[in-house]
Amino acid sequence: MPRSLVLVEGDSDRTALLTLAGRLGHDLGGVDVVSMGGITNLRRHLADLTGDRTVAVLHDAGETTYVDRTLAGHDGDVARFVCDADLEDELVRALGIPAVLDVVAAAGDLDAWRILLNQPFHRTRPQDAVLRRFWGTTSGRKDKYAALLTAALEPTRVPAPLAGVLTAVS
After folding, report:
1. What InterPro entries does the record point to (predicted)?
2. Average pLDDT of span 36-53
3. End-to-end Cα spacing for the chain
């Protein structure tokens, strides 16, 4: 049984964490990184715990109330790491819009990005908000960019929630 467990909201969070660990040389042997398929599955995952394991949860700030209630009913320590808006927001702020758009261009999606950006609803919205919408418009794109954006991070610019999770379980 792995010595540590990291519970993340979705597949893209798992992809980002695994990509970052590899990029930074963190050995996650003995660490189970589990996508819960949504934060509302946290209670079930905690109930399934067996043995003495280090447990960490990575979640979005908007889910804090739910996580608070769930952890209040759980026996055992759980380290929590909270993304401001969501993981994508953390990555965009760490990289900056120009670097994110370089990643989009390198992935061959710049034309699709421009089409979305030029739609009337998105023309006046902040680019970070449009980017989050962009990643959700095509199946698999959110996961793809979780890996690409995390791989593009400078080691000194790793968002605090991701760095905290890796430190807690390494």
Report:
1. TOPRIM_OLD
2. 92
3. 16
DSSP structural state of residue 119: S
Nearest to 118 by CA among 128, 109, 127: 127
Structure tokens at 14: 């798992």
Examine the domain organization and report whether 73 and 23 are in the same domain.
yes
pLDDT classification of 51: cutoffs 50, 70, 90: confident
* Domain limits for position 120: 89-152
- The DSSP symbol for 73 reads T
Domain check: are 126 and 69 in the same one? no
- Judged by DSSP in three states, 60 sits in strand
**Location of structure tokens 């919408």:** 133
Number of domains in the chain: 2
Q: In angstroms, what is the C-alpha Rg of the chain?
A: 17
> What span, in angstroms and rounded, lies between the C-alpha atoms of 144 and 130?
17
Are 87 and 60 in contact by the 8 Å Cβ rule? The answer is yes
Q: Examine the domain organization and report whether 93 and 80 are in the same domain.
A: no
The reply to whether 57 and 105 lie within a common domain is no
pTM value surpassing 0.90 = yes
